[in-house]
Amino acid sequence: MATIPPFRATVAEVGGQIALVSVSGELDLYVEAELRDTLASAGMLRLSTVVVDLSGVSFLDSTICGIIVAETKRLRRDGKTLVIVSNGNFASRVLELAGIDQIVPVYSTLHAAFQKLLLEPVQ
Question: Which pTM value belongs to this model?
Answer without folding.
Answer: 0.91
